[in-house]
Amino acid sequence: MNILLPFRDADVMQRIAAEIRQFDIDRPLRFMEVCGGHTAVIYRFGLTDFLLSTIRLVSGPGCPVCVTANDFIDRAIALCELPDVTIATFGDLVRVPGSTRSLAEVRARGGDVRVFYSSADALTWAREHQERTVVFLGIGFETTACTLAATMAECVQSGVKNFRFLSALKTMPAALQALFSAPDVHIDGLILPGHVTTVTGLSAFRFIPREFGIPCVVSGFEPIDVMESVLMLCRQIKDHHADVENQYRRVVRDGGNPQARAVIDEMFEPCDMPWRGFGIIPESGLKLSPQFAFWDSENVTVEVEPPQEHRGCRCGDVLCGRIYPSECSLFGTACTPETPRGACMVSSEGACAALYHFAPVNYDR
Amino acid sequence: MTDKIVTLNHGAGGTAMRHLITELFVSHFDNPALSELADAALLEVNGSRLAFSTDSYVIKPVEFPGGNIGKLAVCGTVNDLAVMGARPLYLSIGFILEEGLNLNLLERVVASAADVARAAGVDIVTGDTKVVARSECDGIFINTSGIGLQPLGNGLSSNPIAPGDVIIVSGTLGDHGIAVLSAREGLTFQTDIESDCAPLNDMLHTVLSKSAGVKWMRDPTRGGAAAVLTELVEQKPFGAIIRETAIPVREDVHAVCELLGFDPLYLANEGKVLMVLEAKDSDRVLEILRAHPLGRNAAIIGNITSDSPGHVRIETMVGSVRRLQRPSGELLPRIC
Questions:
Q1: Under an 8 A CB cutoff, do A116 and B186 touch?
Q2: Domain range for B284
Q3: Does residue B179 share a domain with residue B92?
Q4: Is A44 on the interface with B (CB under 8 A)?
Q5: Does the N terminus or the C terminus of chain A have fewer Cβ atoms within 10 A?
Q6: What pTM was estimated for this model as a whole?
């Protein structure tokens, strides 16, 4: 029995869609799905087919590869060019263009860039290759941060000397605070990232309804989950009510995962972090705590090229929900998954890649 | 920068590779047989119609669940000939070996190439060996070329394809891609998934000799079924629609795909065939396929349509319809 099938049931889908249509809300609604995982599900399963055109789903800043700023990639490339350095990374990041090139291009010219599916695998590889200095590119949000913290704890405890950590880890509540504080961002409801909330718990996001009056629903990652979350948002709006509700109860506990937070706190401390599209958001990142400075490759002196943005690329506006991917003039022409100009076209969770890959039937490019 | 050197993208089966083929290779080697860009070239020599094909194998790891590079190299070329409607006869095999390669490993590879050639009824009649210094290649690279005889009048092509025709796949999709991935360095999850690597010539010969309705066939290797189907309809006056619920996928393959963010439609297969045929023949062909050990899970997955010409659409499990795009870029897993 495939446990996912009930969450992809066409009849259930139709029933939820019918229920959503019954909400006779008299204005167009913009709901933001924060997480790139949700973006991918929405496009892959064509969920907008089931919604009236008055409800639009907008992607947010929750694709970790997409929000990674150019200077992080530039620094990784500079480190890669040091003697005996291996860059260990999750796959998507390899093809993201930095200021002038990507890690894939560096690899094509002889740089040692290796893709790992988990940081633990990268640490194992480092142990087996003592002659290399392995720099792990730590990107992601709270969900990934706890696994990276566990790997770094293991690295420190077992005294692995040839493993380093370059952090672009980010915390989601800080980004949403920055997003909704911007004057030109108008969102009527938030589909919150289920996996991040597994770690943080619901309380990390309660400031959103409280300070900004925006209804929130923590959502799972199957099509029925996302549709039900839309339904729950509509209900809150109809009832003139704004709260953080939990649709993803089968996974997310209201209190989150204290153990995961403890290991994050043990290894990392908050820091200011640059986000693509946002600039530097205070206290929105995580870096290794000072006592683990030996393993922090921020401390390696290396000449990094001055960061520059790609001309015409509007990933930043896409990530803030200001424009849809198709409103970028590069989309599908100069910028495709094979020749990406911006990060949102690279990651499988990027809004641009999702629209390109899972294009609607009436799509004309 | 990317336009000056070869990157992995040029070998990934997407747009970059097509540009390389059409703008470099075809433009220099230009001739009518090559320009068809089929899995095998169709040639007429002294009244005999021959199919001629070549393929190189650089798979990593060399041994994987369900096969190794030797078996793969024979099956791949046999299948490229078979899907053109040809009867594979003779193969060449060329080895490029890395200094330091374990001879026992090489023997296993050669033995399984020999076994599968025997099973497929082809003779490996000529070969070549080169050894390069350590790190100048990765263990074993193999090239095979093959010649097959194409019975006169049995021309398979996309030309007669018309709206209403059905699309059949001969079995579960994605087995090879996931089997190789699970055996690859750095991936520690363990599965029982084996590559589907197998010679298809016997099954396809049976189908073609018992039913005249098959119009076109391809083996969905690199780029998977998505690559084959999108290429089939590209710039054609017809489109295609496939139904996600009809596509045979092993449950464990499906699970790994969900975990790592892959779509079975884009994963490589080495023992499957996609065919287009008239609807009236579909029951008969399905019956023939399912009676063969390699076709037990054969299924109708969709149709050729007159609407949306040039595009493949997919009806998703939840009932929505979207485009199926051709593969582009390296297959990479998602990260969270």
A1: yes
A2: 166-324
A3: no
A4: yes
A5: N
A6: 0.89
